[in-house]
Amino acid sequence: MEKKTFYITTPIYYPSAKLHIGHAYCTTIADTIARFKRLAGYEVFFLTGSDEHGQKIQRTAEAQNVTPIEYVDKIVASFQELWKRLEISNDDFIRTSEPRHHKVVQEVFRRIRDKGDIYKGEYTGLYCTPCESYWTELQLDENGCCPDCHRPVEKVSEEAYFFKISKYADSILKYIEDNPEFLEPKSRRNEMISFIKQGLEDLCISRTSFNWGIPVPDDEKHVIYVWFDALTNYLTPIGFLDDEEKFKKYWPADVHLVGKEIVRFHTIIWGCILMALGIELPKKVYGHGWLVISGDKMSKSKGNVVDPMLLIDEFGSDAIRYFLLREIVLGQDGNFNRDALIQRINSDLANDLGNLLHRTLNMINKFQKGVLLESVGGTEIDESLKNEAAETAREYRVLMENLQISDAVKLVWKFISRCNKYIDETAPWKLAKDETQKQNLSNVLYNLAESLRIIAILISPFIPTTSRRILEQLQLSQDIKLEDAETFGKLEINHVVGKPEQLFPRIEIE
Ligand code: MSP
Known about the structure:
With about 500 residues, this protein is an alpha/beta fold. It has a domain at about 350-485: Isoleucyl-tRNA Synthetase, Domain 1. Helix content is about 50%, strand content about 15%. The protein is built from 17 helices and 15 strands. Strand 12, helix 9 (about 265-275) and strand 13 (about 285-290) form a beta-alpha-beta unit. It is elongated.
């Protein structure tokens, strides 16, 4: 049987500054979905990268007296280091400064121009350099500044190429209306529909005021607008121009995961570019919310930017991943807060999960020399635990398929609590003192080890290091499948488990 494929992307990040915890949030979500799909047997392609061109980057490099490429090389290396530390399992990393990407962008431009959907004209507009966006008078905020970042805009006039978005306005509107799963969550879909209904103007897609970008083919004094350049990245690594089979395998993308403020670019502009190319649209654009710090947007000027690298140094990557996945409902804004992070580490990771593993392995070692004995018969309590394990695995699959990640995390932790309660209810230390309860004791210990095996599988997309460590301590193979979590009783009789090692130390609150 042919393997099912799954193609997921994050936005490509601007190397205008180091990445912060908000960027780590988006990439962690995408990574979790990619890991889940691999676990469920899909052949996954997970892409992230860097969006390196544009005036802002050129100016930042100039200010530092280095060339743009010297500047981006260094900062992009820090992106890659961060993703490694956060255990991001991307299959490729696309840099828009790479020749393979230039080739694709120029070819896309050429094809659309040859078709007559790109023409030359004169552009006058209000431009926000940090956001690389043109705005109309009407769109500016109450101070006449950029509606996204609230910084001043500049009036710019230049000869430029335009992309006939107006020609595709009706088709893209119809597409969004006819395909409810194309743009999620629903609130973002409604926003986009009303945005398009206000009318779409042709989009200016070239600049002459700077040169750090991809030249327009056959008219090299123009560089291609950074969003036209950037969006095309999604085609490059999956073989758009050089590997037809691979391209067919992964396109259309299953999910473009993006922040809410760039949904417009990913549905309207990207949608129209693809329509002009005659290529299918992605199956889904999902607009997630923002991570805020005590209700405030992160910004350098406020001095509230949280560096994920420092957090990883302090707490480890799984603790950070867990917090981001558990605390924020996908699609909504969420708060990042250090105290809440420590609270979660102590209660959910050190206490609930850590103790369950520790107590279980300890008892198996102490009462049965580390050996799992045959489980025969069983009480009502045993049965209810087994049923809950099966139910958890089933519901988990559904929630994860629907991208309800925080709900899936909560579901698994509900089962972890159930297992801890099971220890209290069955009191194995009492059973161990009573010769007539030997079988009962073996049953309870088997059920606990088996529950931990299932838990290790289910948490592997969220906190992969911890999942590996649990499997190691259980002395089980790291080669896991979601299916294996859906059957209770897979652990072999006479299997020997390892010694317990602490998963998460408790953090003292200052
Ligand atoms: N380069 C463009 C994307 C091009 S994709 C073809 C860009 N880059 S960005 O670095 O500014 O932002 C990348 C992503 O990070 C966006 O999806 C944005 O929403 C996300 N985030 C930036 N700050 C964020 C938070 N505070 N919280 C969550 N996500 C945030 O836009």
